[in-house]
Design a protein that fits this description.
- The complex is a heterodimer of chains A (244) and B (376).
- By secondary structure, chain A is α/β, with parallel strands linked by helices.
- Chain A contains 7 helices and 9 strands, in the order βαβαααβαβββαβαββ.
- In chain A, α1 runs parallel beside α4.
- In chain A, 55% of the residues are buried.
- Chain B has a single domain, classed as Peroxisomal Thiolase, Chain A, domain 1.
- Chain B is 31% helix and 22% strand.
- Chain B contains 10 helices and 16 strands.
- In chain B, the strands form 3 sheets. In chain B, strands 5-4-6-8-1-9-16-15-10-11-13 form an 11-stranded mixed sheet, with helices on both faces.
- Classes of the chains: A alpha/beta (244), B alpha/beta (376).
Chain lengths: 244, 376
């Protein structure tokens, strides 16, 4: 049983979506999800894992500006939740698509995407849900990232995660430990799209794509205060299971 | 692996002494003051169960930071630890943290408090915040429990705190969810919650590790679950589906049947919209078994993101005293809910207790506690 990556998507424009979807981020998440047939009334229990970073402060700033300029009475109740609470866009997504499984917002700045995926993987292994949406958004120049994964016997993709706090780079010991957990060597990716990366999602997509193609890779993310996470993926061919 | 709570510290409107807090839970009276924000937000005010000695002229974010660091240190010290062991993680449940404001014009967004807390306490393990409104602290406990069970670390500090600030108060006033008198969860005449401040931090570690180190165990976390209503932005689902899902997952994790839960500490803050859905969830999970229920928000108020942390402490103290704490201020229980609502302290054999949390947006979290050996 491995991690099965079903869908990956990023939305950088504000789509022209139904007015019932509130806010630019909500529209983007809806835009990504509406074509994902796995979410359309299949009866699967879907968990939602929101990776939250510094955009939290942007959300608060927008809210504060509205309060100061227009007062509390300027809010609509649904918008107060869906647009002005950090987890709101994902709550709206859960309501729209009937995601009644686990629901998480994990605030970890640059490490949020790896930790959200790791939390989702843990829940999938525990059978707490059938499918997991892992996502993030950026508020100032609205952009949304989403990933749909499951755990099933059609996949032999395995993740492993190491905390590297207090180090400016992953050490050889960290990499050795990661390789040991994955049962083979993996290449450390150098992020190439840092400017567009929210909470590590672009790097995560790149690593997952390469790993699915058979190239074991890892990404390392760190925060300015020295927290770090090394997340690797390796596809095991069925014939080699047990050999590693 | 069994997960022990081997350290604990808290701050509440009753103070930070365990016996005083327990007495407050069981008998009150709730220390209530009036909060106002003049001159920055004229007319903005409410009744509030504040922390003793609180300085409400100080920015909420700075108060939260100072309180979190203090409680983190105290929780470690209560376990006999001068500093955090290498690799200790942090799961912080705070709904507002740096998100509230004080002053016009508002300050620009400040620093992120999570790394400030982690670096001050020397925490180098898995670190995250779970800012999921009024369910934040139960989420933090659940995440910490999972990290220990997954072998990601050997120690986790987990809990949450929140204080009162203009943004929170203005938002709750706008939603018209606060009472002008006292909170009456599960009562026929309930009319809203009383905002309060505070929270708690707990040190979690593998039970065998705690015992090997000679640390007394305040209690165990034996199961957690989360779930979403997928129903409405502000109201609990009428059938309580998200809460029911969370409870079932927690029971499954703990390997317990519903009738093994001796007492249930409900989320109920004192709003009718919550209670119907929460009661429906309890009936859906517990069936014909009438689990004794109370909401301690009737005594310590609604400390927002810190509320579940205070309720976790209430559960641990209930296990200690073998007494289920009451829902204060209830003259007449809303019989239509069909719940066994505890309105006076109820001595009983308590082995497993369940704490529930819900929040705006539809997220829910359940945590099951088991009795420890700290008090013999």
């Amino acid at each position: 049983m491995g991690l099965n990556v079903i869908r990956m998507g990023r939305c950088v424009n504000e789509p022209d979506e139904p007015s019932r979807i509130i806010g630019p981020v909500g529209k983007q998440l809806h835009h990504l999800a509406q074509d994902w047939s796995e979410l359309q009334g299949t009866g699967a229990i879907v968990g939602v894992y929101h990776a939250l970073g510094r955009e939290k402060l942007d959300v608060h700033q927008v809210t504060v500006e509205q309060i100061v300029s227009k007062g509390f009475d300027s809010f609509r109740v649904s918008a107060m939740v869906f647009e002005h609470m950090t987890y709101g866009p994902f709550a709206q997504l859960a309501i729209t698509y009937g995601c009644t499984g686990p629901f998480w917002t994990l605030e970890a700045n640059e490490l949020a995407a790896p930790l959200a995926l790791w939390t989702a993987w843990h829940d999938l292994q525990k059978k707490r849900c059938d499918l997991a949406i892992i996502g993030a958004y950026r508020r100032k120049t609205p952009t949304a990232w989403m990933l749909l994964v499951s755990q099933d016997d059609t996949s032999t993709l395995e993740p492993a995660l190491i905390h590297t706090n207090g180090h400016t780079h992953p050490t050889t010991e960290h990499l050795h430990e990661l390789n040991q957990r994955l049962g083979g060597d993996c290449a450390l990716l150098t992020p190439t799209a840092k400017d567009h990366d929210t909470n590590g999602f672009d790097a995560l997509y790149q690593s997952l794509t390469l790993a699915q193609a058979g190239k074991a890779t890892a990404i390392w993310r760190c925060t300015p205060d020295g927290r770090g996470t090394l997340l690797g993926f390796r596809r095991r061919d069925v014939g080699t299971l047990g050999a590693n | 692996m069994r997960v022990a709570i081997s350290g604990c510290a808290f701050a509440s409107p009753f103070g930070s002494d365990f016996d005083t807090f327990w007495q407050g839970l069981c008998q009150g009276p709730m220390p209530v003051a009036t909060w106002h924000s003049e001159p920055n937000f004229p007319g903005l005010g409410c009744r509030l169960a504040a922390l003793p000695g609180a300085d409400h002229q100080e920015a909420p974010g700075e108060r939260t930071l100072a309180l979190s660091i203090d409680l983190g240190r105290q929780a470690l010290a209560s376990a006999g630890l001068i500093q955090a062991p290498r690799g200790t993680g942090l799961a912080l449940g705070s709904a507002w943290m740096e998100g509230d404001i004080l002053g016009v014009p508002p300050r620009p967004p400040g620093r992120s408090l999570l790394p400030a807390i982690a670096s001050t306490l020397g925490l180098t393990g898995p670190i995250t915040g779970t800012p999921i409104a009024c369910a934040s602290s139960n989420y933090a406990l659940a995440w910490a429990y999972d990290r220990l069970r997954a072998g990601d670390c050997q120690y986790m500090l987990a809990g949450g705190v929140d204080v009162a600030g203009p943004m929170a108060i203005g938002g709750y006033l706008y939603l018209d969810v606060m009472t002008d008198t006292v909170p009456r969860p599960f009562a026929v005449n309930q009319d809203g919650f009383l905002l309060s401040e505070g929270g708690a931090f707990f040190l979690l570690e593998p039970l065998e590790q705690a015992r090997a180190a000679g640390r007394r165990v305040w209690g165990e976390i034996v199961g957690t679950g989360t779930g979403h209503d997928a129903s409405h932005p502000t109201r609990t689902a009428p059938d309580g589906r998200g809460l029911a899902f969370a409870m079932r997952r927690a029971l499954q994790e703990a390997g317990l049947s519903p009738d093994a839960i001796d007492y249930l500490n409900a989320h109920s803050p004192g709003t009718a919209a919550n209670d119907a859905g929460e009661a429906a969830a309890i009936h859906a999970v517990f069936g014909s078994y009438r689990v004794p229920v109370s909401s301690t928000k009737g005594s310590h108020g609604h400390a927002q993101g810190g509320a579940n942390a205070l309720e976790a402490l209430a559960c641990l103290l209930a296990l200690r005293h073998q007494v289920a704490p009451p829902t204060l201020h209830v003259d007449q229980v809303a019989e239509a809910l069909g719940l066994d609502v505890i309105v006076v302290p109820r001595p009983m054999v308590l082995q497993h207790v369940l704490s529930l949390a819900s929040c705006m947006g539809g997220a829910n979290a359940a945590v099951i506690f088991a009795r420890g050996d700290k008090w013999g």
